[in-house]
Every structure is written in structure tokens, then in C-alpha cells.
Design a protein that fits this description.
12 strands; alpha+beta
């Protein structure tokens, strides 16, 4: 089986770049040390390789089927999930008093990434469940936590989030699902939901749907939306499973990739009463749901990274073992062929993948570390800074890896040539699985609008200024250092450009040119995303050089790989930002003003 990750890289990020060991000195994580964290990751990798990766191709070829009454999945899915639950991985991030392992979110993110790399389809079920349970932990009542959250953490119930509708898609303000108040304080739910992952199956005793709906009489738009728990089976007063609720599976969506996670069209209250109970305050449904969605968005970026990472390692193994061709200097046609990794263009494709996936992984784990810092900080100012950085980095952490680690998967196919286009190797499946990530949890275009239209401008640009200050501090620390000065100078130029572009676009918006300001939001996300990932690569290069000075050559190949990947990113990738900045500063309206008829 191909490798899931370079564990030396993961150790470098967790311990040497983001200093996860420092968290174990805090009271919340005093039960942990590096040995126990490594033990969790070892156990996760073993389970991912032995129970998830082994059926990934079979699940892809035998996607879920609906016979009109029930959904059928291959048996290996439930066996893998039962082992996952038994190992405590589903509740790993939750407090020990809730039965969890009480692990830092940074460690949980690294652990979850291994399962996505092994089998994204099977991994989807527990990830959705953990996110839904975490929403209930924050917004649910004590009774809801006891009745729904605890069985979810035990793996007895699975969870979903039900946002999109056939006519609304990502436009949540246009949802039509209704919630009709009942005398007992519950609600009758009526409507339809689309694209619901994990919406029906028999992998668990029950499914807890978290459903956005509008209470009758509530105002139009997003302010009128509330959040409801709608179980597949109602629960009795004692928590026992009761009658089948009025949630009906209309059909399955058959997908290009990510086939193992059943994706559904659901009908609520069609012929049979569908009963739900409100979570949180009326009209606060989106605020509650975004707690789950923001966590999911960082998870999407991490998943995209790990699918790209798995493809990179598969193509690297292939390139090292596949003999073909000779160097241009070899004139004798009888001379031995060389492994294709000896060819410069193959090296280019491998180096590009490495720069994308190792940069993406570092970015996502940096965001995860911010989650940990925000949760454990005793200083209110520190908590506010972490929240601001997370606000502006979340759309980048979702969209940038979804775009460029998908590109890594494409390059992996190219490295294998014709074999890469066949199902004999996993790289074509990894590409198809990853193609979902630019779409779900808010398309990359929506992330771009969020980044430019809200996050970069909110609080008079406070989040953007804080991010720029953090990048500037690392630039100053690297300036003048022999191996880093060139990187620092290039990053300074890119940052100054990004600051100028952001100010110019903000001014245009303030003058009423909102449509032109936002017309090229995707270009803005790519420009700022490349600048941020260049910053992440500067941090990695700086730490790699410190290791080189300290270990006297014991880790030479790994360190050289980090420095070469950083060099690639600065020479080949970062220059993209300047070209995008020119487009943005012109407030280019090429796309905005294209007439419909002209297509």
C-alpha cells in the first residue's frame, strides 16, 4: 500500500515548528506527553492503513446503493468504523468527562488527516458526527447533550448537517424548510434538503440531523433561520429509540469521487409528521451552524491537503521505481535506462507537489494550533488575536489547499503517465475524491467573497493588519540571514503588495464600487493565499536551518528537502501574486461585464 504521510514531516510540524509539546505543560493537557501523542498517531496510522486504506478502492468501485427501502454499503465500512470508535478516535478532541481523550485540536487534526488520506469516503461518517456533537456541546441544552451528544460520542448515533436545498444551494437565506411550533415546545419540520452527506445508512442506531429551517412567521433572509435536531428515530423519555421520524430518503446523489460517503436528498414531513427540537435561540440558526461549518472548513482544507499528500507519495514511489528513458547526455542507445525521477520535468512535478502539500499541511496545522491557543489562553487579548487570525485564515485554509493540493493530485497522475489514468494505481481515485473539496462547505468562490468582502475588511481591517504584522515579524527575523535573506526580501515585496491591494479594494468598496471590488475576489484569495503559504514556507525554512545547525547532518536529506521546496515556492509560485495584484488594482471588470448573450 502507498504511504499516507511522511511521519518525519509530521513530527517536524507538530514538535519543531508548532511546539505541540508546550501544550502538554498546560493543566488541560497535563495527562499527555510526546510519547503518548506519538502513540495515538501510531495507533491511528495503523488503523488507517489496515482497516481504512485496504477497502478504499473496493468502496470506490461499489458505491452505496438504495433499493427503495434501505441503503447498502460494503461490509468493510462498518467494520472499519467500529474499530475507529472502539479506539476512541471519534471522541478524541472531547473532554475526558465526556468519554473523550481530551487531545489538542492540533493533534486531532493530524490524526484525522491520516484517515482521509487512507479512505476519504469511510472517514466522512465519524468526522461529520464529531463536528455535529461539538456543535451540541456548545449550543445544545443539557438535556440535548445527554440525549443526543453523548450517544454520538459513544458512536451509537451518527450526525449530519442539513443546510442546502434543491432551489437554494449555497444561498441559505432562500431556504424554504419550515418549522411549525407544537404545543409541547417541539416543532413539525416540513421541507427538502439536498447534498446531505451521511443522510441515511445503517451504520449506527440513529442519525441526528441538524437542520436549518424557518419558524413560521419568522422574517425572510438569514435572520429568520433557526436550527433544529431532527433524529431519524424519535427517542423516548428514557432515551430509547422509538418510532421512525418523518425523514424520508428520496434518493442518492451519485458522485464523481468521495463515493463511499453516502450523499442524499431528504424529505421532511412528507406524509408522516417529522418532529424536531430547536437548538439555541430562535433566529440564531446560522450562528449555531457556523460553529460546525468553520470547524468543517478547516477540516476540508486539511482533507484536501492529505489527499494531495497521499498522491504525492504514491507518485514519488512510482518515480523512484519506474525505469524509462536516458539522460540527454547519454548518447549510447544501449546505455541503461534511469528511474524517471532522474528526469528534470518529473523532478519539477514532484517538487511542485511537495511545495503544495507540505505547505498546505503546515497552514492547516497552524490554524489548528490557533484553535488550541484560543481555547487555552488565559489572556483575553491573546484569545482575541487568535480569533482574528482564525477569521481571516479560515477561508484561505479551506480554499487554497482545495485548489492547489488538487493540482498536486493532477500532477501525480501525470508522473505516472498512462498508468496514472488507470484504476491500477490510486492516484486517479485520489484526484476524484479531492475534486469535491473546492465545492463543499462553501465553494472556493464563496470563500473568496468571504475573505475579501468580510474578513479582510471587518473591524476596520483588524484581522488583516494582525496577519500582516505576524508575517512582518518573521520577515524581520529572517532578513540578513545568509540562507533566508532572499526569501525575506521576496516575501516583504509580496506582503507590501497585498497591503496596497487590500487598501485599494477597501477604498473602492467604501466609494460604492462593491461589485467591481468583489468581481475578482478569487484572484484576491489566490494572491493572499500564496503570500500566506510563502510565509509558512519561510517559517519551515528557518526551522530547518536551525535543525541543520543543531543536528550535525543527522537529518540532512529531510532538511535539504524542506529548503529546496521553499526555494521552489519562492521562485515558481510566489511570483503569481504580483500578476494577480496588477489585475486587482485595475478593478478589472472583464468577467463582471461579460454579457450573457455573448457566451
Amino acid at each position: 500500500m502507498p504511504h499516507l504521510i511522511n511521519r518525519r514531516d509530521l513530527q517536524f510540524l507538530l514538535y519543531e515548528l508548532f511546539d505541540v509539546e508546550a501544550l502538554t505543560k498546560l493543566p488541560r493537557y497535563a495527562h499527555l506527553d510526546r510519547t503518548t501523542i506519538d502513540g495515538v498517531l501510531d495507533a491511528a496510522q495503523t488503523l488507517a492503513e489496515e482497516r481504512f486504506q485496504t477497502h478504499a478502492a473496493k468502496l470506490d468501485a461499489n458505491e452505496p446503493q438504495f433499493d427503495g427501502e434501505r441503503v447498502h454499503l460494503i461490509a468493510e465500512v462498518k467494520a472499519a468504523l467500529d474499530a475507529y470508535i472502539e479506539g476512541g478516535f471519534l471522541s478524541a478532541a472531547f473532554d475526558s468527562e465526556l468519554g473523550g481523550l481530551q487531545l489538542p485540536y492540533t493533534v486531532v487534526s493530524a490524526m484525522q488527516g491520516l484517515f482521509v488520506a487512507a479512505n476519504a469516503g469511510t472517514a466522512g461518517y465519524p468526522f461529520l458526527t464529531a463536528a455535529a456533537a461539538n456543535l451540541l456541546r456548545v449550543h445544545g441544552s443539557d438535556e440535548q447533550k445527554a440525549r443526543y451528544m453523548r450517544p454520538m460520542l459513544a458512536g451509537r448515533f451518527f450526525g449530519t448537517m442539513c443546510l442546502s436545498e434543491p432551489q437554494a444551494g449555497s444561498s441559505l437565506g432562500d431556504i424554504r424548510t419550515r418549522a411549525i411550533p407544537l404545543a409541547d415546545g417541539r416543532y413539525r419540520i416540513v421541507g427538502n434538503k439536498m447534498w446531505i452527506s451521511g443522510g441515511d445508512h445503517e451504520l449506527s442506531e440513529n442519525i441526528v440531523h441538524l437542520v436549518l429551517a424557518r419558524i413560521e412567521g419568522a422574517p425572510a433572509g438569514t435572520k429568520g433561520i433557526s436550527l433544529f435536531i431532527v433524529p431519524k428515530f424519535e427517542l423516548g423519555a428514557d432515551g430509547a429509540r422509538g418510532r421512525r421520524n418523518g425523514v424520508r430518503l428520496v434518493g442518492l446523489n451519485h458522485k464523481m469521487g468521495y463515493r463511499g460517503t453516502v450523499n442524499t436528498v431528504l424529505s421532511f414531513g412528507d406524509g408522516v409528521d417529522c418532529i424536531g427540537e430547536r437548538v439555541g435561540e430562535a433566529g440564531q440558526g446560522l450562528a449555531c451552524m457556523f460553529h460546525m461549518m468553520n470547524e468543517a472548513r478547516i477540516g476540508v482544507g486539511l482533507g484536501a491537503t492529505m489527499l494531495g499528500y497521499a498522491g504525492y507519495l504514491a507518485s514519488l514511489d512510482y518515480a523512484r521505481s519506474r525505469p524509462q528513458g536516458r539522460p540527454p547526455s547519454a548518447k549510447d542507445p544501449a546505455s541503461p535506462q534511469v528511474p524517471i525521477i532522474e528526469h528534470a520535468d518529473v523532478k519539477r512535478m514532484l517538487l511542485q507537489q511537495k511545495a503544495y502539500v507540505e505547505g498546505g499541511l503546515a497552514l492547516c496545522l497552524y490554524c489548528a494550533r490557533l484553535v488550541d491557543d484560543a481555547a487555552t489562553a488565559t489572556n483575553a487579548h491573546r484569545r482575541e488575536e487568535c480569533a482574528l487570525l482564525l477569521d481571516i485564515l479560515t477561508p484561505i485554509a479551506k480554499a487554497w489547499p482545495s485548489e492547489f493540493c488538487l493540482e498536486a493530485n493532477k500532477l501525480a497522475i501525470q508522473v505516472l503517465g498512462g498508468y496514472g489514468y488507470t484504476r491500477d494505481y490510486p492516484v486517479e481515485r485520489l484526484y476524484r475524491d479531492n475534486r469535491l473539496n473546492p465545492i463543499h462547505e462553501g465553494t472556493n468562490g464563496i470563500q473568496a467573497l468571504d475573505l475579501l468582502g468580510r474578513k479582510a475588511m471587518m473591524k476596520n481591517g483588524a484581522a488583516f493588519r494582525l496577519l500582516a504584522a505576524r508575517i512582518s515579524a518573521d520577515i524581520e527575523a529572517a532578513t540578513g540571514l545568509a540562507d533566508l535573506d532572499a526569501f525575506a526580501r521576496e516575501l516583504r515585496k509580496a506582503l507590501e503588495t497585498a497591503i496596497g491591494v487590500t487598501q485599494a479594494l477597501g477604498a473602492a468598496g467604501a466609494q460604492g464600487q462593491i461589485e467591481r471590488m468583489l468581481a475578482n475576489a478569487s484572484a484576491y484569495l489566490e494572491m493572499l493565499g500564496h503570500t500566506v503559504v510563502a510565509w509558512i514556507w519561510l517559517q519551515q525554512a528557518q526551522r530547518a536551518l536551525a535543525l541543520r545547525a543543531a543536528d550535525h547532518g543527522r537529518d540532512g536529506d529531510f532538511i535539504e528537502g524542506k529548503l529546496r521546496a521553499a526555494r521552489y515556492f519562492y521562485r515558481y509560485e510566489l511570483p503569481r501574486a504580483a500578476r494577480l495584484a496588477e489585475l486587482l488594482l485595475r478593478l478589472d471588470d472583464t468577467c463582471l461585464t461579460m454579457p450573457d448573450a455573448a457566451f
